[in-house]
Design brief:
The chain has one helix at residues 28-36, and strands at residues 5-6, 11-15, 49-54, 58-59. The longest helix has 9 residues, at 28-36. It has one domain. The radius of gyration is 17 Å and the shape is elongated. The strands form two sheets. It has a two-stranded antiparallel ribbon. Strands 2-3 form a two-stranded antiparallel sheet. It is 13% helix and 22% strand.
């Protein structure tokens, strides 16, 4: 398959997952980072846009499972 490089000029949104194993929040490093921003298990931003970014270039990587 041909290697494809492209450009995307519009902003993209980064979305938090809709579900998560809350047990990860008990990891001391993650817990400390969440607490720094006042986030706890009850108010995790699930399924929400949490950031935007400007993607300036991408490289197409073919899916090895189905060839696309």
């Amino acid at each position: 398959m041909k290697h494809v490089v492209g450009q995307h000029l519009d902003p993209i949104a980064i979305q938090a997952g809709k579900t998560m194993d809350i047990g990860y929040c008990e990891c001391p490093l993650i817990k400390k980072a969440l607490q720094k921003y006042g986030i706890g298990n009850a108010n995790l931003p699930m399924g929400l846009v949490i950031a935007t970014a400007k993607l300036v270039e991408y490289h197409w990587v073919p899916n090895q499972l189905n060839g696309h």
